[in-house]
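Structure first, sequence second, as always.
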């Protein structure tokens, strides 16, 4: 008689987009081998600034300047969202939108423009890519491209991921795990929260604790990248990003069709951890975005501001850490440090997590 394979109980620490997507991928693509429990301080619906997933724009716009591993993650997510938008009837929060990217002549940040007359690597991976003719480009712009892309109404998407996890038998419990006594003690605490005899009950642990891995596993490469956005009423015609503007800012216009709003932004402030709103930067963000979404301006030439948001991206020197490690008696897969790309990386990262466990 054939024996049933043992079900492997996986603890996921963290319920941001990385923890949730990893949990879902284990359940959906793990061939029935995994049982998943999530323990997290912040959950879908929460709005703490340190919970990065609550504050993303979010859009698909690869940050990669060549075909790196992270670029591959972006491509996997693009393809997955394309199917999701086509096939899913329920509210997912993901919307197909028209994108436009502009690069300035002399870029200042790492967001390098494609070399003159050459298209970015992702031009052959996205749908409907076309260059914007020089005559149509805004002033002081070297290169522009249009393409089909996606935006995410983040709280709706996080709730959708959790619904799917629960429908597949996964569970989620809210708790802040201790960080001072080491990782194994945090996992022991998670086993208490879930009413299990001990941490050895878990076959493996996914550490998707974002920037808080600084404390949880002592990763000093992690650093905060503060991002401030403004939500305005109305749905912009295009999802626009202008790269190579002043340091510390990029112009982004991210429509959320299902919510009837657009996210305007966004500041990029490395090593700033404050989640307080900086009111001085609001006019600067709005004025920079105005020429790119005139359709959102009222008769007074101003946006109708709904709210202002601040989130802390989990930056990491050396890039995201997606890695297997044995910590005392625990098999751990780290999945954190995804900076400003967690949504667009999420499907590729979750599949790598699954692969590392297999
Ligand atoms: C303004 C802004 C704009 C952005 N725009 C985009 C975009 O357009 N596209 C894109 O792809 N990305 C974007 N991002 C980046 C994206 O939001 C992040 O990369 C992503 O949300 C990180 O997800 P995460 O799951 O790693 O971390 P988080 O969302 O921070 O989740 C961490 C989880 O770990 C839990 N946790 C941590 N420590 C403990 C503990 N000790 N005990 C229990 N639980 C714990 C937390 O409670 C939380 O549930 C943006 C971010 C910001 C702030």
């Amino acid at each position: 008689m054939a024996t049933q394979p043992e079900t492997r109980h996986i603890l996921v620490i963290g319920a941001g987009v990385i923890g949730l997507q990893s949990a879902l991928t284990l359940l959906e693509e793990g061939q029935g081998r995994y049982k998943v429990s999530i323990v997290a301080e912040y959950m879908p619906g929460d709005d703490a600034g340190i919970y990065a997933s609550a504050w993303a724009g979010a859009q698909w716009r690869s940050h990669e300047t060549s075909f790196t591993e992270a670029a591959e993650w972006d491509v996997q997510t693009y393809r997955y969202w394309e199917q999701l938008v086509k096939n899913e009837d329920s509210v997912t929060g993901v919307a197909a939108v028209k994108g436009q990217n502009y690069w300035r002549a002399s870029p200042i940040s790492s967001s390098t423009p494609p070399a003159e007359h050459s298209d970015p690597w992702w031009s052959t991976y996205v749908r409907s890519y076309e260059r914007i003719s020089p005559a149509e480009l805004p002033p002081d712009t070297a290169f522009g491209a249009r393409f089909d892309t996606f935006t995410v109404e983040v709280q709706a998407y996080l709730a959708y991921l959790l619904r799917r996890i629960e429908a597949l038998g996964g569970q989620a419990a809210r708790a802040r795990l201790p960080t001072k006594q080491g990782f194994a003690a945090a996992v022991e605490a998670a086993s208490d929260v879930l009413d299990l005899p001990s941490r050895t009950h878990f076959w493996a642990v996914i550490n998707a604790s974002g920037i808080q891995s600084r404390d949880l596993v002592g990763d000093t490469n992690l650093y905060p990248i503060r991002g401030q956005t403004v939500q305005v009423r109305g749905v912009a015609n295009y999802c626009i990003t202008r790269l190579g503007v002043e340091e510390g800012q990029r112009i982004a216009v991210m429509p959320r069709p299902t919510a009837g709003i657009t996210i305007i932004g966004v500041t990029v402030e490395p090593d700033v951890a404050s989640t307080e709103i900086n009111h001085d930067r609001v006019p600067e963000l709005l004025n920079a975005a105005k020429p790119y979404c005139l359709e959102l301006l009222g008769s007074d030439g101003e946006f109708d501001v709904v709210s202002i948001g601040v989130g802390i991206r989990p930056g990491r020197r050396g890039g995201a850490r997606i890695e297997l490690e044995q910590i005392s008696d625990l098999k751990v897969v780290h999945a954190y440090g995804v900076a400003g790309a967690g949504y667009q990386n999420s499907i590729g990262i979750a599949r790598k997590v699954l692969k590392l466990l297999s």
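Margin note: The chain has one domain: 8-357.
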